[in-house]
Specification:
The complex is a heterodimer of chains A (about 110) and B (about 110). With about 110 residues, chain A is mostly beta strands. Chain A contains no helices and 11 strands. In chain A, the strands form 2 sheets. In chain A, strands 2, 4, 5, 9, 10 and 11 form a 6-stranded mixed beta sheet that branches. Chain A is globular. Helix content of chain B is about 0%, strand content about 50%. In chain B, a hairpin with a 6-residue loop joins β7 and β8. With about 110 residues, chain B is mostly beta strands. In chain B, the strands form 2 sheets. In chain B, strands 2, 4, 5, 6, 9, 10 and 11 form a 7-stranded mixed beta sheet that branches. In chain B, strands 1-3-8-7 form a 4-stranded antiparallel beta sheet, with no helix packed on it. Chain B is built from no helices and 11 strands. Classes of the chains: A mainly beta (about 110), B mainly beta (about 110). Chains A and B meet through β5, β9 and β10 of A and β4, β5, β9 and β10 of B.
């Protein structure tokens, strides 16, 4: 059974600081996803990482994937208050040729303090 | 192109009643996934459907829950005889044929009183 673990589960950080969220998964998978969720809202897709060594950046967020270590990181640079949200990583399990189901981590609640 | 639509957005049911949650996938998408998010937890896969077919229901509780995606109309997740533990946010996602990325709807927040 595929397990996905995130840490930390809660992160309180000062504006302007850097930090990293980690996502470990237990078995080989083809793709890793990062999502953002604001309270009471749906999931917003941030990154899709498709191969070993993949790195993607958008604004103050950068995600990377190491498939050998089964580890992805989401790095936050110079945090701002607007980044406060819950961040989920998810890994897909290859199902049929038609599509895959996602296994989510528990989420990291990020609070950026002024 | 409208996104994934779910209705109702909020649903309140008393214990023992039935809940019907609807999901209209994005235009051109033939696959629908349902996920449940309990308070303070991540999303858990429930069921994956194609038109008129259940592909994978390994995450569905064995009793009281059912899902369908008819040839015409939205996908429906049906919960019979709801209990307080069913209170959660239910998200639907869709994807096109032979593509991996899933697009999530706004969710239906079910409260059982």
């Amino acid at each position: 059974e595929l397990k996905v673990e995130q840490n930390p589960l809660f992160l309180s950080m000062q504006e302007g600081k850097n930090y990293t969220i980690y996502c470990n998964y237990s078995t080989t998978s083809d793709r890793l996803y990062w999502y953002r969720q604001d309270p009471g809202k749906s999931l917003e897709s941030l990154f899709v990482l498709l191969s070993n060594g993949a790195v993607k950046q958008e604004g103050r967020l950068m995600a990377s994937l190491d498939t050998k270590a089964r580890l992805s990181t989401l790095h936050i640079t110079a945090a701002v208050h607007d980044l406060s949200a819950t961040y989920f990583c998810a890994v897909d399990i290859k199902g049929t040729e038609y599509g895959n189901k996602l296994v989510f981590g528990a989420g990291t609640i990020l609070r950026v303090k002024s | 192109n409208a996104g994934v639509m779910q209705n109702p957005r909020h649903l309140v049911r008393r214990r023992g009643q039935e809940a019907r949650l609807r999901c209209s996938p994005m235009k051109g998408h033939s696959h629908v996934y349902w996920y449940r998010q309990l308070p303070e937890e991540g999303l858990k896969f429930m069921v994956y459907l194609q038109k008129e077919n259940i592909i994978d229901e390994s995450g569905m509780p064995k009793e009281r829950f059912s899902a369908e995606f008819p040839k015409e109309g939205p996908s429906i997740l049906r919960i019979q005889q709801v209990v307080r533990g069913d209170s959660a946010a239910y998200f639907c996602a869709s994807s096109p044929l032979l593509r991996y990325e899933q697009y999530f709807g706004p969710g239906t927040r079910l409260t059982v009183t």
